[in-house]
Amino acid sequence: MGVDRTRIAAPGSWDYRTAELSPAGAESVAGGAKRAVRYGYEPYLLAAGLLALWHLAASFLPQGGNPLLPAPTVTGKALWTSMPELLKGTYYSFLILVPGYLAAVGAGIAIGLLVGTTGWLDRAFTPFARVASPIPPTVYIPYAIAVLPTFRLSAIFVVFIGAFWPVFLSAAAGAASLEGRYRDNARILGIGGIEYLRKIVFPGALPHIFSGMAVGLALSFILLTVAELFGANAGLGRFVQYYADFADYPRMVAGILYTGVVTFLAMGALDRVKRRALFWVR
Fold it and tell me: What's the confidence (pLDDT) of residue 4?
């Protein structure tokens, strides 16, 4: 009897065939993921420790009249007074992030499912993916700004490129790892084409797809902030860059912390959607 092995995609890997796990290994990974979501008091303890270290460093490190490391209380005050500007920047950043990320998710899932289930597409796309996916999306920023008519389109394109590859690779891995009995049963029932992809392959690949979406969302925030540093008139990255240029470090640090909180909330929202969609994976 042959050994049934479950393929998984390594985050950031260009080839979804480069890592394989036996069923026991897959169960171990699933168990580790379940253990990882059981938060206790440890995150709060770590946050309190980091805050204390930050306060001690700001109090005792020698700094000039305009300290590069403002105290937590000074940063908190700057964060509060900057909230209207930060909320406006969040709105402009999401005008770039949302269309770029959603387009990447739609294209990555559709193309990934086709590549993962169609032999000739797999053979055609794999060499291209090996070349294109490792390229850092940040190298496209200057060229996209020069070629596309507006900065917003350029930033949306960069976000799209950053989120597309993780979603595509995960969708292709999920489709390719679908057990043969499902394909055989679908063939017996006369299910094929788009219906086969929609009713059989897509639900089976959803755990992989959500993993790719999480990686793609984190990359989208990184690329969005980097793109806004190049020439945006508004947005979270522009907020940080603007106050860094004027050496207003309390507002700059406040902008960095606020961006982290927005990213955390977005990742949490995606995780909630994942838990509702994958109700059978618990």
Answer: 40
Cβ-contact 67, 76 below 8 angstroms? no
Q: Which two tokens stand for residue 78?
A: 């700057």
CA distance 38 to 51: 23
pTM value > 0.85: no
Q: Over 17-83, what HEC string results?
A: CCEEECHHHHHHHHHHHHHHCCCCCHHHHHHHHHHHHHHHHHHHCCCCCCCCCCCHHHHHHHHHHCH
Q: Please, are residues 108 and 167 in contact by the beta-carbon 8 Å criterion?
A: yes
193: left (phi over 0), alpha (psi -120 to 50) or beta: left
Closest CA to 198 of 110, 280, 106: 110
CB 118 within 8 A of CB 230: no
Note the pLDDT of residue 26.
42
**What one-character DSSP code corresponds to residue 242?**
H
Convert the pLDDT of each residue in 190-227 to its tens digit. 777 888 888 888 888 898 999 999 999 999 988 888 88
Rounded distance between C-alpha atoms, residue 46 and residue 135, angstroms: 35
Residue 97 confidence (pLDDT): 92
Q: Are 258 and 236 in contact (CB under 8 A)?
A: yes
Hey, what amino acid is at 189?
L
Contact 278, 207 (CB under 8 A): yes
Structure tokens of 189?
Answer: 């029932």
pLDDT the model gives residue 151: 83
